[in-house]
Design brief:
With 248 residues, this protein is mostly helical. It contains nine helices and no strands. Helices cover 90% and strands 0% of the residues. The chain is globular and about 50 Å long. Bound molecules: zinc ion. The site of zinc ion has 6 residues, from helix 4 and helix 5.
Length: 248
Amino acid sequence: MSAVGGLARVLLLSAFGGVLSALAASLFVILGARARRALIPPLVAFATGALLAAACLGLLPEAFAAGGPAHTRAVGLAAVFGLLAFFAIEKILRARRDDAKSVTAPLILLGDALHNFVDGAAIAGAYLTAPGLAIATAIAVFAHELPREIGDLAVLLDAGLGRGRALVLNLLASLAAVAGALIAYHALAAAQGLLPYALALAAGTLLYVALASLVPALHERRGLRSALGQLASAAAGVLAIWLTEGVA
Ligand SMILES: [Zn+2]
């Protein structure tokens, strides 16, 4: 496959995960609270399963295999770094968010762009390892970005931004996914030795999003019925990644 063909696919997958999810989120905001209430809870559980599977079945095994037996600890450390980096970013965003409403919107957009950049880079790193892994990662990105972008839009509107302005700015921030994919694709193609660490780092960020961002939201719903529903949706997310990663 030509390098241009590969890059085009990476950009398409990152646009699917990062930009299309933001577009779909805009639609949800326009549709209103009822559509959100019906579709978001199962989607969050599905995304949790998809993220855990993309990290544990796809990115981490590939990272350790690519790094080889001599570098297992260093690759593992990259995963820990990814987890802690996202923890630090969220810490900063939360601390500043409480300061004043005037800084909320720029910080949300900046944090969103940074997060999307890493998502795009993860897709590019996955693609350079195996196309199937990139498709699985893009699905996991899309599934968690949809509820996350809806949440971001809600905060932007709450901070006083007009609806049109919030949608456009949020969409612009989502383009960072494509930029991240473009930059990571070239950087990792030039420095293949970094690929195992980039994959492990990306796995760490996906694990953080699943366990620290999505799981707390799942716990807000009580009762056996909702627990079973969440487990079933999460299992469907795992299955979706298992199948896409295995087939392509
Ligand atoms: Zn994301």
